[in-house]
Amino acid sequence: MDLPALPSSPLFLQSLWIGLSIAAPVGPIGLLTIQRTLEQGTRAGLATGLGAAAADACYGALGAFGSRLVIDALAQARPVLLGLGCAVLLWMAWSLWRASPAPNAAPLPGETQLGKLFAGTFVLTLSNPSTIFSFMAIFGALATGSAVPAAPGPMIAGVFCGSALWWLVLCAGGALAGPVR
After folding, report:
1. Which of 16, 38, 113, 138 has a Cα-to-Cα distance from 50 of 20 to 30 A?
2. Domain residue ranges in the chain
């Protein structure tokens, strides 16, 4: 059985770099992914990272299907998005500060918990102001007057694959470091 060939269109490859470059700067989502990988294992880290990659793909889809409209709408909603993102990050910081220290050997997450890790990171990434403004800047620069590119599929897939690649590398590095003792 032959494996399917990886997409190699210039748009896919360009979008892969966009997804990778937006995911790579270590911020709150990266730290959360590292923490979950070290404390709960590679599966928890990957679920967290893939939640972020899915959110990045959503922003990629918005950019692919109408970057000018999306950029204008996000610019209008900037104060609200900044407030929501800050509130979520402050709530997370408060929760972590008040939480009791994790035991040396945390139980491995079950399938249900992996879904919760994915969904929580998805929502957190969607509300992360740095992610929003990174996509606004990149797709604003790529906008060439056409509201919809000729092939939005490769663009969305490229953003997801690039972001997912970063989270896979980050989780593999965390797994090599071993659990927190």
Report:
1. 138
2. 30-96+110-144+151-177
